[in-house]
Amino acid sequence: MTPPPTDDLAVDAQGLQKRFGGFSALNGLDLQIPRGAFYAFLGPNGAGKSTSIALLTGVYGPDAGTIRMLGVDAVARPMEVKRRVGVVPEELSLFERLTGRQYLTFCARMYGLGGDEAAARATELLELTELTYKAGALVAEYSKGMRRRLAIAAALIHAPELVLLDEPFEGIDVLAAGVIRELLRELSRRGVTLLLTTHVLEIAERLATHAGIIRGGRMLDQGPVGTLLSRYDCPSLESVFEKLISVPASRNARLSFYGERQESA
Amino acid sequence: MSRPAAPGFFRHLWLLWGLRFDIGLNQGPGRSRLLAVAAFLASSAPGLFLGLTFFALMRLRTIADSEVWPFFILNLLCFVTFSLWVTWPLLSAGVDDHSELSRYAAFPISPFRLLIASTVASLFEPRALVFYAPLTGAALGFASVYTLRAPWLAGVLYGLFALLCAAWSRVALYAVINVLREKHSAQIMGGGLALFLLAASFIPPIDTSWLTAVGEAGVGALDMSLIVNAAVALGRVPPGFFGDGLAQLAWHRPRVAMAEAAALLFFTAVGMAVAYALLMRFHRQAGRAGGPRKDAGDSNPFATTRTRYGTLVTREALDLWRNPRARLLASVPFILAILLKLLSGRDLFVFILGASADAWLMGGLCIYGAVVIASTFSQNTFAYDGQGFAAFLAAPLDLADVLRAKNQVQGAAALGMAVLVALFYRVYFGFGTWVDLLCALAAVLAVVPVLLAAGNFLSLYFPVKFHANLKRRDKIPLTASLLGILAASAGCMPFGWALKLAGREGPTWATAAMVVLAAALNLALYRGVLPLALRLLEQRREVVLQAVTRE
Fold first, then answer.
1. Taking CB atoms and an 8 Å limit, are B26 and A97 in contact across chains?
2. What residues in B contact A89, CB-CB < 8 Å?
3. Closest CA to A222 of A244, A201, A239
4. Using a CB-CB distance cutoff of 8 angstroms, which residues of chain B are in contact with residue A51?
5. In 3-state terms, what secondary structure has residue B298?
6. Which end of chain B is flanked by fewer CB atoms within 10 Å, N or C?
7. Which residue in chain B has the smallest CA separation from A62?
8. For residue A134, with 0-12 CB atoms within 10 Å meaning exposed, 13-18 middle and 19 or more buried, which class applies?
9. CB–CB contact A112 B5 (8 Å)
10. Angle B127-B131-B137 (CA atoms, 0-180°, nearest 5)?
11. Is B290–A110 a contact, with Cβ atoms under 8 angstroms apart?
């Protein structure tokens, strides 16, 4: 029996199912994120992380299941949820022919902020994400790390209570990752609920207060990081992850075409 | 924390229009806003000319005093404007920035409102100035000659007509991208074409005997009932409701005009509903399937290639075959040929060009077929490679072979297209001699080397990245487009000159020989400049890599 919804949870998704043609991406996923938590959403490729985020952000509707976000039914009242949630998608579809400043201001206006307020927040976020020196350049001229930071700034422009970040550390350098990490820490300190998907378990380990591990569209386990570590008697999230996700057989492939190493005498 | 209310419809409309405006202003070379405005004004100049021409035409005494011509012109322009507006976005075959829902997923705006607002905002695009100019000029000219009852209703009719065009242009675009995204898009398009061909065969040809009468006794011999019937017929299809509505206002029948406005609104609403359904279908299925899934028909042609160059050629061929835009473009000449027959267009060409008509038509369609394939892909030859270009650089192969393989495949595809189009024309129309056929194919042989030679340089000087997933609409620099058109025009010249020399008597073997000779010279030109292009490729490899791997 699924537990009743509670408003102490920033995200309360129960029994989520989603199919794409013949492929079942989510098979009854349950996801509970307490308010103020920094939740690391982990799983191998194709496990259903991005699909889950797409459902939470209303990009797709679930085939079955319920989603409550910040105490609001996200399927029935998506607009109310969107006003309070920020999203950093994995695939960054930014408007390339706008400058960074124009892009952030446009995003702010789309959330209903006035012109002056929008411009002021854009300036502050550009500074925070260390993009001020590129504020007047077209997004098309931004590097991957800069785009990622701009997308995070755009997700924060309306001061959301909950931020969903899909692979924000993918393909970026150490410096950009550092800026993002600090920003996320600061948000967490300020009580913003964060959901982060990442393959870099070390980052999840350093930042997250809670974690959930998903495979084949099902939640294998979730909870506070400390609880998970003690439940599986593991020293790190990485080992919990490895314990829950079986190692693929291909890791034991033999590389037979290399031949055996010839030891010199 | 108190939050601002989500913007209302008109605020969204304003924001989305502002977004287009800013993007437009940022398009200028080096991001010069002044240059962007200048380019906009220069590209709008033909619109001003067309508008003024039609304004003056409607005020001409001969036209203004006629009881038929003003209505025929208005209704015809409604139909042409609608057709142009609907078909124009199809050729790009990609979702533009403003209707890719994922870009707006985070914002508090519903997909339906986004569709409506972005569709309305699309009417304020610069191209509207050119596309709507003839009809606007004609309508204003008409209004200045006739006294309209309830002139405000004319404005409403105009607005609704523009909305109708915008709505159905979305329907066409989303229908096409839905088909192109399907795995079996080639089969679906082929089947659709066959069905279209079958349906077209049941439609009786248009009576063109009047052409003979006009040819023999001048315009005075024109049977005006034909024009009246055409005006009435064009006024009965939804786009014609605007022209007909204006006529009703001139005849002081505002109630009928009101009914036509209501009909325009109805068909616009139907268009928006269909467009919304198609967009949501595209959007819903654009998600990653994820997980391992074996494709039953997944063959591996690379397992059987004999040389590295053969592997490169196979890759290029496969890449072109699987490119949804190539499939779309390949179908266009066949559709044009069917439409030509449906409208009895060949008779008009025979009337104007005599025995040369089939050579001109066959050559024109073949060249078009070859040009859309050769120029679309050869002028951005590395655009679809993306990170694959980095793989070429990393592999122990001569980069020149990559370009040669691309040229070989694109040239062969263009020639193959031309052969298919020529055979289709010969079988479908039942006209055209062997000389016509030879002239048409030789014309393609002449134009393809020029396109490939120019394409190589354009690809290196103006490298761009294209997205194969249809979720983006890619833009080619204006200069590159203009140079490409110039190259295609230069390549077509021998064919044009040879047929012009042949006159109304039709081409002879000598005409064909002239075009073949030009083709041989152009081939020599291509071979002559290829080493330069290969050298340039070595010099600009990093520039190209940077451009095609850009996020």
1. yes
2. 102, 105-106
3. A244
4. 287-288, 290
5. coil
6. N
7. B284
8. buried
9. yes
10. 125
11. no
| pLDDT given at position A10 | 93
Contacts of residue A108, Cβ cutoff 8 Å, sequence gap at least 6:
A117, A118, A121, A122, A157, A158
CB–CB of B289 and A93 under 8 A?
Answer: no
- Chain A residues 106-135 with a CB less than 8 Å from chain B: 106-107, 109-114
Average confidence (pLDDT) over B322-334:
81
Task: List CB contacts (< 8 A) between B6 and chain A.
Answer: 79, 82-83, 111-112
Please tell me what DSSP assigns to residue A5.
P
B291 neighbors A26 (Cβ within 8 angstroms): no
- A182 token code pair: 């600090």
Half-sphere exposure of residue A150: CA atoms within 13 angstroms, side-chain side: 32
Those residues whose C-beta lies under 8 Å from the C-beta of residue A2, and which sit 6 or more positions away, are A14, A15, A30
Contact B137, B55 (CB under 8 A): yes
Q: Where are the beta strands (DSSP E) in B68-204?
A: none
Lowest mean pLDDT: which of A30-34, A106-110, B220-224? B220-224
Give percent above pLDDT 90 in chain B.
35
Measured between beta carbons, which residues in chain B are less than 8 angstroms from residue A87? 105-106
Place of tokens 């790390």: A145
Contact yes or no for B104 and A84 at CB 8 A = no
Tokens at A108, concatenated: 């702010």
Regarding an ipTM greater than 0.85, the answer is no
Other C-beta atoms closer than 10 Å to the C-beta of B161 total: 28
CB atoms closer than 10 angstroms to residue A116: 8
Neighbour tally for B178: CB within 10 Å: 18
Query: A151 contacts in B (CB within 8 Å)?
Result: none
Query: Does the pLDDT of residue B294 top 50, yes or no?
Result: no
* % of chain B surpassing 70 pLDDT: 89
Query: Chain B residues with CB-CB distance to A under 8 A?
Result: 1, 3-7, 11-12, 15, 18-19, 22-23, 26-27, 31, 97, 100-110, 283-285, 287-293, 471, 550-551
| pLDDT at residue number B291 | 41
Torsion angles phi and psi, residue B467, rounded to 5: -105, 130
Of A57, A102, A112, the CB nearest to B6: A112
Complete DSSP assignment for B217-246? H-GGG--HHHHHHHHHHHHHSTTHHHHHHH
Q: What is the arithmetic mean of pLDDT over B63-80?
A: 89
Q: Do B109 and A110 touch (CB under 8 A)?
A: yes
What average pLDDT does this structure show over B426-447? 91
What's the average model confidence in pLDDT over A196-201?
A: 87
> Which of left, alpha, beta for A130 (phi over 0: left; psi -120 to 50: alpha)?
left
Asked whether A126 and A101 are in contact (CB, 8 A), the reply is yes
- The whole-number average pLDDT for the span A169-191 is 86
Rounded CA gap, B119 and B99, in Å?
Answer: 9
